[in-house]
Design brief:
The protein has 69 residues and is α+β, with helices and mostly antiparallel strands. The strands form 2 sheets. It has a two-stranded antiparallel ribbon with strand order 1-4. Strands 2-3 form a two-stranded antiparallel ribbon. A hairpin with a 3-residue loop joins strand 2 and strand 3. The chain is globular.
Length: 69
């Protein structure tokens, strides 16, 4: 799983940080840091975080592996 956060849209409500703290982290009051490639054990947390984002700034997708086409 791969995520992208539209940082222009993000308003730092931090719902993602509460729901997936191993993937999202808030630095200061407005700087969101995140891990673009989500560990398998965090997929459910990240999907809930994306759904909870009030401004829908988190895009979740699957990235093809080396053998996938």
């Amino acid at each position: 799983m791969h995520i992208v956060v539209d940082l222009n849209r993000c308003q730092a409500y931090a719902q993602c940080v509460f729901l997936a703290p191993q993937v999202f982290e808030l630095h200061g009051e407005e700087a969101l840091m995140f891990t673009p490639t989500v560990p398998d054990d965090q997929r459910g947390h990240v999907r809930r975080a994306a759904a909870a984002c009030p401004v829908q700034a988190i895009l979740v997708g699957e990235r093809a592996g080396p053998g996938d086409r």
